Amino acid sequence: MSTFRTTLALLLASPALPLAIMPASAQDAPAQAAANAQAYLDRIEALDDAGPRISAVIVSNPDAPAEAAKAASLPLGGRTVLVKDNIETSEWPTTAGSLALKDNRTGRDAPLIANLRAAGGVVLGKTNLSEWANFRDNSSSSGWSAIGGLTRNPHALDRSACGSSSGSGAAVAAGFAWAAIGTETDGSITCPASINGIVGFKPTVGMVSRTYVVPISVSQDTAGPMARSVPDAAMLLWAMAGSDPADPATAEADTYRPGLTSGIAGSSLKGVRTGVLIQRVGPRKDIGGLFDNALDDLRGAGAILVDIEYQPDPAIGRDEFTVLLFEFREGLDAYLGGLPDHGQPRSLAELIAFNDANADTELRWFGQSLFPMAQDTTDREAYEKARKNSFQLAGPEGIDKLLRDNDVAVLIAPTNNPAWTIDLVNGDNFTGGVGLTGLAAVAGYPHLTVPMGAVEGLPIGLSFIGTRWDDANVLAIGAAYERARSTELPEPGFTRWDAGTDLPR
Hints:
505 residues; alpha/beta; Amidase signature (AS) enzymes; 11-stranded mixed beta sheet; 13% strand; disordered N terminus
């Protein structure tokens, strides 16, 4: 057997190999941090660039081991982080997955990246995403971009990694980094986290700066951590978070940032009143069984479970769509217009023309129906009315009312259905009726998903949703559940789903 094949076999047999390397002492910390970083790079080369070809990582940082050694004495200790490729880093172009931005090298770090480096995090590379963060066409396939190709789910290579933070979710599940950064407008962290069997946290909008992040919605966009555990996610969020004068939504972030990790280690579920969204479990008995096991674990750890009947008002989604279309045009025009001129489109109108001119590569699998709709959504009065109504229904009259009326600390439900089969021709096969991702997204409130088991080897997450700026409490409750969880979690098999099942012939 060749050296490469031997290495590949060992990596497949030990999916957590790089994660197990930890500094033995302060004196050894630089060398161990460098070794960790190199182990992740080796794993990316063997399993992402070759082998099963997850295609989660677009570009990696060969200097990461040296950078990790230098950062070993800082709070994050040189831990490696992969970054979704709609967030600017100084080393590489920031493309949002589009050939239109293949030369978008700004030389800037987004403030959240500057914060990460200052805390001792090392940028290991950039991850693939659903192109334009999945806001291009209603028939898109999550995980595909013209720049990065198709990201695959390491638990089932023929199944979707969801999106739009597809590469970040798949990379963490595959053990390509300590953690990753994703972004969410509506489900783009929580869905790929749930479907790839990892922890994902969408913080309160305003906890993390959006400056130099390719935008969709100023009302709903946020970056957030994706990790193997809740404590790791909290640590990464603490490193990313902070107030930014260029992003007014973050004015209070410095107030809440110190508490993000302080209550994690000793958190308890004893006496925690927990709202169980019994109508958001969906019709599947296998998901219902997993959820029942999670409820038993919560109850066994001392949580007080309160059944809540709730179905979201359809007006929330209707008005949210108006908001996203209007804010996307405004935000993208401002972002593109403010970039260094490398010949890329300078407006949404020019981007639409670019895609039409490059249809053979950009529009092969699905179109750009949302772009012209956004270009034509210019009625500010209608937009402001839609934003006011959708936020009111999702936040004050939605999550806040449910928490207050039932005297509960958080709301819980399964996060998503299992991963669906990839179909580039017909697009994603989303099925609804599970969870309340959209409610937390429109309100801008914190939403944590933690693995709670699997259906036929396909991971399922458990959601914890709280009120605005209650991020620390949501994380603490999620960490306590994680410690109490009794269900065995699957490890990625790096094979097709049907290869591990006894299907009828």
